[in-house]
Amino acid sequence: MEFFNLVTNQIYVLLQHGKSVEDEKNQIKTLADLNYEKITFFQGISHELKTPLTLMLSPLNDVINTCIQEPLLMSHLQIIRRNAHRLLKLINSLLQFSNIETNQLKAHYRETNIAKFTHELASDFKSMAKTLGVNYYIDIPNPDEFDLDKIYLDRDLYETIVFNLCSNAFKHTWNGQITVRLYLDYMNEKKKMAVLEVSDTGIGIPESALPNIFQRFYRVESQGSRSHEGTGIGLALVKELITLHGGDITVTSVVNQGTTFKCWFPLGCEHLLIDQIFSNKMEYQINHDRELYTIRQLYLEESSQWIKDNKSETQYSNNNKELDNMNIDADETTKNNRKYKVLIVDDNNDMRDYFAELLNEFDVYRAYDGQNAIQTLKTLKKLPDLILSDIMMPNMDGYELLNVLRSDVKTQLIPIILLSAKASETSKIQGFDKGADDYFVKPFSTRELIFRIRANIECSILRRKILFHRYNKHGSFRIRFR
Q: What residue stretch is flagged as signal peptide (predicted)?
C-alpha cells in the first residue's frame, strides 16, 4: 500500500511538472505573439506617418523655393522642414527596428572600399568641428591595405552607423578632440576584422550605465551634453545594424575623460546570406547617391543646432541703468513706456528662434540651458521681466535653474514660466512646487502663451510695487521660497 502511495504521488508530481512546463510554453508563446503584434503596430503607425510627412515635405520644398524674397516666411518654413526631417529620421529608425525584429530588413551587401567611404562620411563633420572648436581627426593610416581584403557592406546601413556614432561624439564633447579611426585588427586574437573606432574626450558614460548602453530606449541621464533631446534608439540601432553585418560593437568609457566605440566588421562574405550579396556596383551607386543626401541631411540638420548654441546669443539692452539688489523700482518701471524683457531658455535652437519671432513685442534674450541663462543674467544691465524656460535641458535643467533664481535675492522676484512636453498633473504640481509662476504644456496656443506672459509680467510689477512701498514704509522685508 505504501508503495502504491509513493507511485501515485510521483505520478502526481510529474503531471504537475508537465502542466507547469506546458503553462510556461503557453506563456512564452503569448508574450511572443504580443511582441509581434506590438512590432506590427509600430510598423503600421510608422508607415502611416510617413505618408503625411511626404505630403508635407514635397509641397513645402516647392514653397520654400518660391519664398527667397521673403526672409521671415523663409525662416518659418525652414524650421518646419528641419523638424519634419527630424521626425522622419525617428520614424525611419523605428521602421528599421521593427523590420529587424520581423526579419523584413533586406540588406544589400556589396564589395566596398571601406577606407574611402569612411573618410567620405566622416569628412561631413569637419565644418561642425571647426565651428565648435573641437579638434577632429580622421585617421586611416594605410588605406591601401584594405584593398587586399574584400569587405562587404550595406552602404546605407554603414552610413547610419558612422553618422550615429559621430553625431553622438559631438553631442557629448564640448572641447578636446574627436577621432575617427579605421584599421585592421584581430578580434580575440583569432579573426582578422576591419575596425571602425570613434573616440572622444567628452563627458563619458558612468560605469553603471555601460551594460545597458545598447538596450533599446535606454538613455543615460547626463547634464553635460549639448542637448538633452534623444530617444535612446541610436546606439541600440547601431548594434543591430552591425550585427546584421556579422560584426560586433564594444565600448569603453571614463566619466569626464571620454568614450571609445569600436565596431568590428568581418572580412569577406562567407558570413552573409547569398541572396543579399550584390555585384552590380554601377546600378547600386546611382540608387545610393540618390538616397545619400536625404540620410546625411537628416543627421547633419539635427546636429547643426549645436553650432548656433556654441555662439553667444545674448541680445544686449541699450538701458545702462544698474538695478538695485531687489529690482523693485516699480514706480520707474510703470512710468517708462518700454518694451518688457523676456529671457528664453531652451536647448532646441529652432524653438529659441521661433520664440524670438513670436514674442516680437518684447525684448527677447536667449540662452541654451540653465547655466547659460545664469551667465546671460550676469551680463545684462537690467534683469528681464520674465523668464520662459524649458525643463529638460543639459548642464542645468529648468528645475535647477528655478532653484538658483529663487535662492538669489536679485532674481527671486522674476516671474518664471516653465515649458514642458510632460502634461500629467503630477508634472504640473512639481513645477509649481519648485517655484514656477506658470506651467505650459507643448504643443501650446501661441495667443494664450503671449497673454499669460503679459499677465505674469503685470502681476509681477504689481507685486514689486507693493513690496517697494512696504520697503519704503518699514525699511526691510523678507521673502521666503521653499
A: none
